[in-house]
Amino acid sequence: MAGNALYDVGLRLRAAELHDMGRGRASIAALLGIPEETVRKWLDIYRSAGIEVLAMMGKKHAAYSFETKLAAVRAVVDEGMTKPEAMAKFGIASPSSLKKWLKAYREEGPEALRPKPKGRPKGSGSPTKEMTREQELERRVRKLEAENAYLKKSIALKAEKRSRTERKRLS
Q1: Which of 11, 91, 119, 160 has its CA 20 to 30 A from that of 53?
Q2: pTM of the full structure
């Protein structure tokens, strides 16, 4: 299996169990028939957030407050804490979330970690204002001129194609 393959919870729990028995990543990957990188990610989550989070992977996405995000990022950037340590301390389930926050923080600062409003912004889309009769007619003329130009171009292309076909046939 490659890419973003989803594995069942039993496989993830078995990987954690094998880890607790002293097995390494390569050994676990070989035994379970999955990529070593996948095992590495699972074990990072298991060590940092616990068995519950490992079991819940893929079920739901946790929402973290601005303060939690900021504290975790500052712990890594300013205090030199490792990512797995920060994940464990702040209860962050996904390493990709922490990576995304770190990138945003480094590029745009703390404000980049604030929650973004969902959905379409209010007032989007221009309100239709009443057009005068003259404006309506001008709009209609422009539309008809564009349509006319399109049809002329289409007729010219068809005629050119016909003439090429005739020339080929006569040759």
Answers
A1: 119
A2: 0.47
